[in-house]
Amino acid sequence: MTKPTSSVKSSFSKSSPLMHNYGRADIAFSHGEGCYLFDTKGIRYLDAISGIAVNALGHAHPGFTAAIQQQVARLVHVSNLYQIPEQIKLASVLCKRSGMQQAFFCNSGAESIEAAIKLARKYGSKRGIKKPTIIVTDGAFHGRTMGALAATHSPKYQEGFTPMLEGFVRVPYNDVAAINAAIAKHAANVVAILVEPAQGEGGVRKPSATYLNELRSLCDQHDMLLMLDEVQTGNGRSGKWFAYQHNGILPDVLSTAKGLGNGFPIGACLTAGKAFDIFQPGHHGSTFGGSPLASAAGLAVYEALDKEKLVQNAAKRGKQIHQGLQKALKGCTELKEIRSLGLLIGVELHHDCGELVMAARKRGLLINVASGNVIRLAPPLVLDEAEADFIVTVVCEIVKEFRP
To answer: Of 175, 245, 270, 284, which has the maximum CB count within 10 A?
Structure first.
């Protein structure tokens, strides 16, 4: 593998026509192939972040490319004023794989969370609750639109955008006792619990093995909605179609996006049980949601996940990377913990380690750092054994060389 020797000078300056709301790296890519990206100088990198857990099929996947090319040639957009056969088909596929009953399509993870919040409020309204309240958790990231931002736990993202939307009560993650206390305190108003099965932006943090099961029981006991944010963990990344399937439960509301479109913007909010049929005409909508092209992209992703056994591959390669890192970093004093859920892997260090993004890039590997001190790995689900070994090798090198 060719290794980069220098970085590309950033083209994003104060004279740029783009708003300056991203801290962009000084690199740009010209094309991709499988698990690899090539920069504008022709240098190849193994992409272990996948556009932040988006490119499940990697780059330039032949089947995916052909499917969206064919759809573009037929029909791109008609709006939800009309029947969209591709959308109905994708909804059926998602419901089959998730166990859910209905789907609403939108364009992003944040939009799918906004839909979930509205569903919870409508559910409360139907029960005569005037101030419906949703329990959310510390360390959560649900998006940056105003409703999702209120559910998110990040003062740095919320700063300057207050007052936040009301109707949320925050408790520690992975703390059932705290949720019980919140229910007792706000019993008349609590309508839902919204959590991530594993916190991606929060540092790939996993709860106890029974956490989701206990939340399911609480929601059943108190007639609340269990709403799961699987924007990052869904669509095969966890080694199951959806992460809650590791627990053998079913939520009432499921939000997902990212890997669903392999880079084409699409999100979905699915319902079952108590949340079934809450939305009626006029309650919610999206001009672009579930367009023929977006739906074709989602169908192509799910066809590849199934035919190429990529969900199983995510479980296998995730285990390989976890075990490889655990073995190679044994005794490393800087290592705090390794956590994984399929091909979503977090390597937590004792110190902030943002500089390791560049250290990995110089070795031909693209990673990112979440929560300040956690190397986050989310490679494409098409990752093979040799590519997984390369990730282990580079991550171990940069961690062992790290001098905070």
So the answer is: 270
Contact 262, 248 (CB under 8 A): no
Q: Domain spanning 75-307: which CATH class is it, in words?
A: alpha beta
For 172, other C-beta atoms within 10 Å of its C-beta total 12
To the nearest 10 degrees (0 to 180), the angle between helices 310-328 and 385-401 is 30
pLDDT of 135-186, one tens digit each? 999 999 999 999 999 999 988 889 899 999 999 999 999 999 999 999 999 9
Would you report the helix, strand and coil content of the chain in percent, each value rounded to 5?
Answer: 35, 20, 45
Q: Can you tell me the distance from the alpha carbon of 237 to that of 230, in angstroms, rounded to the nearest whole number?
A: 10
User: Helix, strand or coil for residue 54?
Assistant: coil
- Give, in words, the CATH class of 29-61+309-401: alpha beta
CA neighbor of 266 nearest in space, from 142, 106, 143, 111: 106
Q: Supply the Cα-derived Rg of the chain in whole angstroms.
A: 21
Query: How far is the first Cα of the chain from the last one, in angstroms, to the nearest whole number?
Result: 28
Element of type H or E holding 85: helix 85-98
pLDDT digits (tens, 9 = 90+) for 331-360: 999 999 999 999 999 999 999 999 999 999
Long-range contacts of 309-316 (CB under 8 A, 24+ apart): 310/56, 310/57, 310/236, 310/381, 310/382, 311/236, 311/239, 311/240, 311/241, 311/381, 312/239, 313/381, 313/382, 313/383, 314/236, 314/237, 314/238, 314/239, 314/342, 314/343, 314/381, 315/239, 315/240, 315/342
Give the DSSP letter of residue 276: T
DSSP string over 282-310 = TS---SSTT-HHHHHHHHHHHHHHHHTTH
* CA gap 255, 235 in Å, rounded: 11
193-208 pLDDT tens trace: 999 999 999 999 999 9
Q: How far apart are CA 153 and CA 148, in angstroms?
A: 10
Tokens of 365: 């590997």
Confidence of residue 9 (pLDDT cuts 50, 70, 90): very low
Using the Cα atoms of residue 223, residue 229, residue 233 and residue 235 in order, give the sign of their dihedral: positive
pTM over 0.90: yes
Domain layout of the chain by residue ranges: 29-61+309-401, 75-307
Q: What is the mean pLDDT of the chain?
A: 95
